[in-house]
Every structure is written in structure tokens, then in C-alpha cells.
Amino acid sequence: MPPFTEQLLEVTEAVLRQASTQSVEDYARFSSTFGTKEDLDFLLQLSAQLAGSKTVSNILTHLTRVIPFLTFVNNAKMDALIEHFRDSLDFSRYDSEHSQEQVRSLDNCR
């Protein structure tokens, strides 16, 4: 049986996936109960800390599926999500300044 956290994320993902099939207005109303931008920041930081850990890879997988649902139709949360990944999207900087660890990390994604 998966750990409690993983089970909770599976249920959360299923609920959010089903809710996303509703109209934008209904989803916006539902998503207003999802917590604050600070809660999203916490989940993003947690995801970053878990990245690379093989023992919690299932939890990280579920987090990466849940987080986008938490940002839909909420500009402040979507901005926070984009800002979290802004440095990762600076490809020119990566081309000129990447480390060997970053190269290995990308190689592992293949």
C-alpha cells in the first residue's frame, strides 16, 4: 500500500482532474478554495527539494500533476508558477553557464 501522502495526492489529483472538466466559471469558483499563493510556493519548494530523490519519486510525480490544477484560472498563482521556473527557462544563460550537474540532470531525462 502506498504511503499516506501518496494516497492523498492520488485522490487530490483525481478530484482536480474531474473538476477541470467543468466550465471555466465553475472551476474558478471551485479553485477559490484551494489555498493561497503562499501554499503554492510551499508545494513548489517542496517539489524542488524532492527532485532527484528516488525514494519519493512517486510523490514528486503526483505533485507535478497536482500543482498545475492549483494554478488554473488564478493569475496570481499562475504568475508564481512561472516565476518559480523563470531561471530554468533562460536558455541563453544555460547555454553559456551550465554546470556538469545540470548536463547530467538533463541527460537523465532522456
Instruction: Provide the succession of SSEs.
Output: HHHHHHH
Residue share in helix: over 70%
Structural classification:
mainly alpha
Mean pLDDT: 85
Largest sheet: none
Bulk shape = globular
The count of helical stretches stands at 7
Q: What's the alpha carbon Rg, rounded to whole Å? A: 16 Å
Instruction: Report, as a whole number of angstroms, the end-to-end distance.
Output: 29 Å
The amount of beta strand, in percent, is under 5%
Number of strands: 0
The low-confidence runs, each spanning 5 or more residues with pLDDT under 50, are none
Number of domains: 1
Structural summary, described in words:
By secondary structure, the protein is mostly helical. The protein has one domain (4-108). Helix content is 73%, strand content 0%. It has seven helices and no strands. The two termini are 29 Å apart. The mean pLDDT is 85.
Give the key terms.
110 residues; globular
Protein topology:
Blueprint: H1 4-19, H2 24-31, H3 37-50, H4 57-71, H5 75-85, H6 91-97, H7 100-108
Helix pairs in contact: 1-4, 3-4, 3-5
Quick summary:
The protein is mostly helical and 110 residues long. The chain is 73% helix and 0% strand.
